[in-house]
Predict the structure.
Amino acid sequence: MNDLGVITPTAALSSYPYTPEESANALKHFYFDLGDRIWGPYGFYDAFSIEGEWYPHRYLAIDQCTIAPMIENYRTGLLWDLFMSCPEIQEGLQKLGFTINR
């Protein structure tokens, strides 16, 4: 088996719009149960493994970039609405045969 049990907080938290209940539970577990083992001054660290007792204190910038916007998109739909309001996006979707519901 090649699974090292590595978990990336970014994956769970950036999935908020698709799995809100599971992502909220993951967020609470990461923050309250694992605390400073996976959280630092700039947010969650890149990855960790409870099974492997591996908690490196390092960040990957691209990981930090997706968490807050995806939670906001879940909360208000702001980013989706802005994206879908672009004429280029609407035109592209129509060319692909998608129906745009307003």
